[in-house]
Amino acid sequence: MIVMKTFVIDNEALKKAWGADNQYWFDLSDYSIFEDYNALNLVVPDNFDKDDILNYEGIIPYYNIKRVELARAYVQSTNSDKLKTKFASLDDSEVVEYFWKYCHAYPEYFQRIEEFQHEYILGNLKDWCEKNNIKYTVEL
Asked: Is the pTM value of this prediction over 0.90?
């Protein structure tokens, strides 16, 4: 009998989506998430580059959310044309700072931020699983 692997999307999996670029990796052989790619001590041919190693070992970067992406998505979900217009004109380097300033200045538009954050990350993590042909279940 063949047992199909299933990745469990739980609170820990959502939390790791906040990791730094290339902080967390996903092993396609056992569906585990691990930190610090360099700690693996993989034995591969000398002429392999990073992409060759990942393909060789079945390791892919874990899903990662950028704060600027989440801030822009949240602003787009509001019913405030003023906020949408302001944020459309901002460079990515300014978005997070302005997001928190506006959060304090206009709390009525930011009451759903925690709920939105959870839904947005969960939805994107599901999309990441599907894109990478990873069978998953949600246990939150």
From this structure: no
